[in-house]
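ARCHIVE CARD
Drawer: 12
Card no.: 0347
Subject: one protein chain, sequence and derived structure
Cross-reference: see card 0346
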Amino acid sequence: MLSRHKGNILAYFKERLTNAICEGINSMVQAAKRKARGYHTFEGYATMIYLVAGKLQLAAPVPF
């Protein structure tokens, strides 16, 4: 069984990605898709993905 999955096992040690991480990213993209429902272009959808999954530090400007 190990020899059949050797490539996948070695890929984990190289990339350090598991299915759990990929599913988490997919969950955030699906949430962005639901939030971007009113946008009619892919650019709106892509922007929403960046806002949801990008972990951006957005600060409000100080007025004075």
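Annotation on reverse: The CA atoms of residues 43 and 60 lie 24 Å apart. Helices lie at 6-15, 19-35, 42-53.
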